[in-house]
Amino acid sequence: MDVDPAEVGFDEERLRRIDRRFARYVEDGLLPGYLAVVSRHGRIAHVASHGNRDVEAGAPVEPDTIWRIFSMTKPITSVAAMTFVEEGLIDLTDPISRWLPEFAAPRVYTKGSAQAPVTVPATEPIRLWHLLSHTSGLTYGFHHTHPVDAAYRAAGHEWGTPPGLDLAACTRAWAELPLVFQPGSEWNYSVATDVLGRLVEVLAGKPLDEVFAERILGPLGMVDTGFWTDDTDRLAALYLPTPGTRKIVRNEAFGALGTAAPDCFSGGGGLVSTAADYHRFTQMLLRGGELDGVRILGPRTVALMASNHLPGRVDLEAYGRPLFAEMPFDGYGFGLGFSVLEDQVKAKTLATPGEYAWGGAASTAFWVDPAKGLTAAFYTQLLPSSTHPIRQQLRQLVYQALLD
């Protein structure tokens, strides 16, 4: 810890409820191990951890454990894209086809099967803000609810990408598939941020890993964040719940992710990181785009990203499809790379309106609360993130300890 919790408005004993609640998950065999970090006004007020990064090896969770952060990659890709907006190289309203010509004439599904879809031309081009806000009409193969989802799976895009295809090839493949809806007309969690990563590559004229290193990771000193790590002893093992009992079981196939350079640099879910590194990223956001004298974005840009961009500032329940996402739909809108809390009563949460957040498929999560000067993050390795209500419980436990 950097500070006595009381100095930044927390009740220390109430914060210990975080430790007790999630330690119980570990002791019941529902999580392998976890690490949670709570900070306020830039100072770490509470760190909680319990259990193992590798259950079978008996290797405990350590402060420098490396985690697969999956979709917590998305905010980093979104920040990278916004650096190009700030430089005037692209506008939020620009059609992405100016840089990705494969999206010059997208078609939209209207009826039919995955094998024989009936489509119509898109009436609106996919624009940069559509990618950032998941309103592009793209989808994910793992949704399993729409014929276009099935078409993604048939093309080899479900929980990963086909072997041998780089990000450019994957983006061309997605462009050949129909959109689920007209761009800008709905919200749907999708490969949009992966396409955004490809757009960033084209704008920069270099691979996404180099863009991240030059524009975000290097300047912020995020030395343990990347698309893979050579320090595999520190990389946590990945687990799945056993059907019926939800007791954890190791998954070697997914566990190989992050141990070698991937074919496709996934801006939607490819990074590994540590709690210390991602803490620096959240503090940069909390401070309006700057940390330790290094400015990544301007404060007005961060504020725009953390605003609800859904038309009429409605929530995802009203505008989104009732599919898997990394947060609830009731009371939450969506900005440019983050969920945004609009209505705490509708969301049934103690969190503050204006909080922005996201999570990863292996049950990691973070949020930034500008009004309270607060950030929190949670790390573990359990797929999928919908297995336990970790995020809702962590918010409850953090905010019940905040006394001002």
Outline of the structure:
This protein is α+β, with helices and mostly antiparallel strands. The protein is 30% helix and 17% strand. The model has no long low-confidence stretch (mean pLDDT 96).
Characterization of the model:
This protein has a domain at 80-204: Beta-lactamase. 30% of the residues lie in helices and 17% in strands. The protein has 13 helices and 16 strands. β2 and β3 (59-60) form a beta hairpin. α2 (73-86) crosses α6 (192-204). It is globular and about 60 Å long. It holds the Pfam family Beta-lactamase.
List keywords for this structure.
16 strands; alpha+beta; 30% helix; globular; Beta-lactamase; 404 residues
**Beta-sheet strand percentage?**
15-25%
Work out the helix count.
13
CATH level-two architecture of the domain at 80-204: 3-Layer(aba) Sandwich
Between the first and last Cα atoms, what is the distance in angstroms? 20 Å
Q: Provide the residue-averaged pLDDT.
A: 96
Q: Name the structural class.
A: alpha+beta
Q: What name does CATH use for the topology of the domain at 80-204?
A: Beta-lactamase
Strands side by side in the biggest sheet = 3-2-1-16-15-14-13-12
Order of helices and strands: HEEEEHEEHHHHHEEHEHEEHHEEHEEEH
What are the low-pLDDT stretches, counting only 5+ consecutive residues below 50?
Answer: none
CATH superfamily of the domain at 80-204: DD-peptidase/beta-lactamase superfamily
Number of strands: 16
Major beta sheet, specifics?
8 strands, antiparallel
Shape: globular
CATH class of the domain at 80-204 equals Alpha Beta
What gyration radius follows from the Cα positions, in whole Å? Answer: 20 Å
The helical percent reads 25-40%
InterPro entries: Beta-lactam-related (IPR001466), Beta-lactam/transpept-like (IPR012338), Diverse_Enzym_Activities (IPR050789)
Protein name: CubicO group peptidase (Beta-lactamase class C family)
Pfam family, one: Beta-lactamase
Domain Beta-lactamase-related: 18-396
